[in-house]
């Protein structure tokens, strides 16, 4: 049973009709006392609570009822309904235990999405499966590892992927946040639609609106034609906002509006456009700390993190290092046509003991560099030590400096060029062989000026 708390009979009736069409049993209450009487006698699965459900417009009664509900039974999920002008109250409500907030006038599709997502997440999580069972249920081909921490994350990813819940992925650089974002998309009902990746750290505040929302001809000096923004390109699919912690405050306000209202205006246009996207964000920064410091908006933080997935550092799952190393070597066998290429047991053990502050990305570079510079087919400890050495930086942490006359960028260019030639420029096969996503490969192809034929995403 779902409980709607609002003093406006028309709103209660409208919401009840909407929810009943979806098969839910619905009760309504026009006052705090009526609501609490129902709660005491029949535990609702979820409560939709209008912050201004009485003649008062301060929202204080709604907040007081939320606190009373949470004290009586903190397991009952509550979604707040609020006007844009009382967003601050909604954020306070989130701190006090509300699960989400929806602004008026609400969009039916978004409201239903929020209700279904929260009910889905309230179901008891199954025990962590083994890797084989997970792969039977979901698509995790590019994610390597069997560590219990990783398996728990993949179980969560599989469960939330089927909803449209906004997901925030956190973790150190190089831990595979983009791969997790892509896995969420590939296991969702939007998998046949676009997956658009945006590196917010690489977009200046002056270009933010044009890049994300597009522009019309004449919007600024160089706007010769209309241009679709990233949100429009991602319509009915998913958008991955990487490095969201790098956004300045003015851009955060503009992003929040789109996430709240599901509408945007291209730069230079006065016509609003509606967009239907699943939003996945990622950062290696501590957003809670940024909120406390006033550098990240609290309302935006609560809007993007209905689900938070924290990726462990590679040093926290050392048993996966040999698996990842072998995965990279298997890909390199194809690229370099060296079918006998393998990793010795001693080298595998040695790699497990490296600090790897750069996580999976650093491990991949180490393996690639050693394969590129070693003549033999069996990679042993000596092969790795010839081409890298561990030193101590001024900060006291270990680092792996570049050696020889070849840089990582040159090596990356050579590997991508060889892979493109070997796979006849088929981007999907090249990305799979290199162990990266197509979208990551597209960025590198553009970076190095390597021509390619775009594939549907």
Automatic annotation (TrEMBL):
Protein keywords: ATP-binding, Nucleotide-binding, Phosphoprotein, Transcription, Transcription regulation
Residues found modified as 4-aspartylphosphate: 50
Signal peptide (residue range): none
PROSITE patterns: RESPONSE_REGULATORY, SIGMA54_INTERACT_1, SIGMA54_INTERACT_4
Classification via Gene3D superfamilies: 1.10.8.60, 3.40.50.2300, Homeodomain-like, P-loop containing nucleotide triphosphate hydrolases
Domain Sigma-54 factor interaction: 143-372
A Pfam family matched in the record: HTH_8
Record InterPro entries: AAA+_ATPase, AAA_lid_NorR, CheY-like_superfamily, Homeodomain-like_sf, HTH_Fis, P-loop_NTPase, Sig_transdc_resp-reg_receiver, Sigma_54_int
Top-level lineage group: Bacteria
MF GO annotations: ATP binding; sequence-specific DNA binding
UniProt domain Response regulatory: residue ranges: 1-119
UniProt-listed GO biological process terms: phosphorelay signal transduction system; regulation of DNA-templated transcription
Protein name as it appears in the record: Sigma-54-dependent Fis family transcriptional regulator
């Amino acid at each position: 049973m779902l409980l709607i708390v609002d003093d406006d009979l028309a709103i209660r009736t409208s919401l009840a009709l909407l929810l009943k069409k979806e098969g839910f049993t619905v009760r309504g209450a026009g006052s705090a006392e009526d609501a609490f009487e129902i709660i005491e006698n029949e535990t609702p699965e979820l409560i939709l609570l209008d912050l201004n459900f009485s003649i008062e417009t301060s929202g204080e009664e709604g907040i007081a009822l939320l606190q009373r509900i949470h004290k009586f039974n903190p397991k009952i999920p509550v979604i707040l309904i609020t006007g844009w002008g009382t967003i601050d109250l909604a954020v306070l409500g989130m701190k006090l235990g509300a699960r989400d907030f929806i602004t008026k006038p609400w969009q039916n599709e978004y409201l239903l999405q929020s209700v279904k997502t929260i009910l889905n997440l309230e179901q008891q999580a199954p025990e962590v499966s083994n890797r084989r069972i997970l792969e039977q249920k979901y698509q995790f081909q590019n994610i390597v590892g069997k560590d219990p921490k990783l398996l728990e994350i993949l179980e969560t990813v599989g469960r939330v992927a089927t909803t449209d819940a906004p997901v925030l992925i956190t973790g150190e650089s190089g831990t595979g946040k983009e791969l997790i974002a892509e896995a969420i998309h590939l296991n969702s009902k939007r998998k046949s639609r676009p997956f658009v990746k945006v590196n917010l750290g690489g977009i200046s505040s002056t270009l933010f609106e044009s890049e994300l929302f597009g522009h019309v001809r004449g919007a600024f000096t160089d706007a010769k034609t209309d241009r679709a923004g990233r949100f429009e390109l991602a319509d009915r699919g998913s958008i991955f906002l990487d490095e969201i912690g790098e956004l300045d405050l003015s851009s955060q306000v503009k992003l929040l509006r789109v996430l709240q209202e599901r509408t945007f205006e291209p730069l230079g246009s006065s016509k609003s456009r509606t967009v239907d996207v699943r939003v996945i964000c990622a950062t290696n920064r501590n957003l809670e700390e940024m909120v406390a410091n006033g550098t990240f908006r609290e309302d935006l933080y609560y809007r993007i993190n209905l689900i938070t997935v924290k990726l462990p550092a590679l040093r926290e799952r050392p048993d996966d290092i040999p698996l990842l190393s072998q995965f990279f070597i298997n890909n390199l066998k194809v690229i370099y046509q060296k079918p006998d290429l393998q990793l010795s047991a001693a080298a595998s053990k040695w790699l497990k003991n490296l600090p790897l502050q750069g996580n999976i990305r650093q491990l991949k570079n180490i393996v690639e560099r050693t394969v590129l510079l070693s003549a033999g087919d069996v990679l042993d400890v000596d092969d790795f030590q010839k081409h890298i050495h561990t030193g101590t930086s001024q900060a006291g942490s270990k680092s792996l400096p570049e050696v020889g006359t070849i840089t990582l960028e040159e090596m990356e260019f050579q590997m991508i060029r060889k892979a493109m030639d070997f796979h006849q420029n088929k981007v999907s096969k090249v990305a799979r062989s290199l162990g990266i996503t197509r979208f990551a490969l597209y960025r590198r192809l553009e970076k190095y000026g390597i021509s390619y034929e775009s594939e549907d995403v």
